[in-house]
Amino acid sequence: MSVSCAGIGEVRAPLLQGLWECVRAGQEDILLSPYLPALYGFVIHLLLCAPFLVLDTLGRVCQRVRSWRITAGSGPPPPLRRWVGCFWKVLYQYLTTIVPATALFQRVRSPVMPELAPSCWQFFVEVFACLLLFDMLFFIWHICMHRFPWLYRNIHQLHHRHHIPFALAAQDSNSGELLSLLLLALSSAWVLGCHPLSEAFFHLINSWLAVEAHCGYDLPLALHRLLPCLGGAPYHQAHHTLLSVNYAPYFTHWDLLFGTFRAPVKRSQ
Ligand SMILES: [Zn+2]
Ligand SMILES: [Zn+2]
């Protein structure tokens, strides 16, 4: 496979180009479908939650798994009926609000499918820039939700009924909340002019970080243990418990800057 070089940082990785050609092959109609963002968001959310459903099931019989639960009274893993109830609620929000609203947004946005994949550098910069931008927008949105009582009562409070969240509950919210966060994520990629491959990867990482933040476990190989700039599940669980701290979704710098950071309680081994 050929590698085109247009200068330093413009090396097109054969892997990315091959992946992009594979994704595009005969799939243009699907890739340009206005329903794709909602479908992709829903399906990857379910798939990324699956390992935590296994973990929650194992946690009912395995002490080792329970020892990874976050301290400060996180309690036993949620039973299967909570997962099932949550699944139907999220599905209902998608069918009634998210699918039609994001389809409308996609029609306005009219995405295009370029021939070439992004270069490695472009891919990395776009994904990282999307994460930084979305992190900032979410932080502002989240502060507003907590500082304005009307917004909290009518939109955000529903998500906070989970004092001790679990993976699937990352999307268990009021339809207005779910929609606004999905539109913020789509807009972040749109404003930055991302390549569709970078955007798809950003949404994948975004979903994973949201699922991990709500999973209820402080796992030995969790991302926040490898990358200290990330808050992770203990950080977000502190938000669900205390409400007035740790507003950012991934990184901790905005909370540190605005004095709303609260260090999570360390898991006892
Ligand atoms: Zn949450
Ligand atoms: Zn909140």
Write a brief structural summary.
This protein has 269 residues and is mainly alpha-helical. Helix content is 61%, strand content 0%. Residues 1-9 have low confidence and may be disordered.
Domain module count: 2
Q: Could you tell me the radius of gyration in angstroms?
A: 19 Å
Question: How many DSSP-defined strands?
Answer: 0
SSE pattern? HHHHHHHHHHHH
Q: Please work out how many helical segments DSSP would assign.
A: 12
Uncertain segments: 1-9
The amount of helix comes to 55-70%
Strand content bin: under 5%
Backbone structural class = mainly alpha
Can you lay out the helices and strands and say which pair or pack?
Layout lengths: L13 H11 L3 H4 L4 H24 L3 H4 L13 H30 L10 H28 L1 H8 L18 H17 L4 H19 L8 H4 L5 H11 L10 H5 L12
Describe the structure.
The protein has 269 residues and is an all-alpha fold. 61% of the residues lie in helices and 0% in strands. The protein is built from 12 helices and no strands. The structure holds zinc ion (ZN) (2 copies). This is Fatty acid hydroxylase domain-containing protein. One of its GO terms (cellular component) is membrane. It comes from Sander lucioperca (Pike-perch). Keywords: Membrane, Transmembrane, Transmembrane helix.
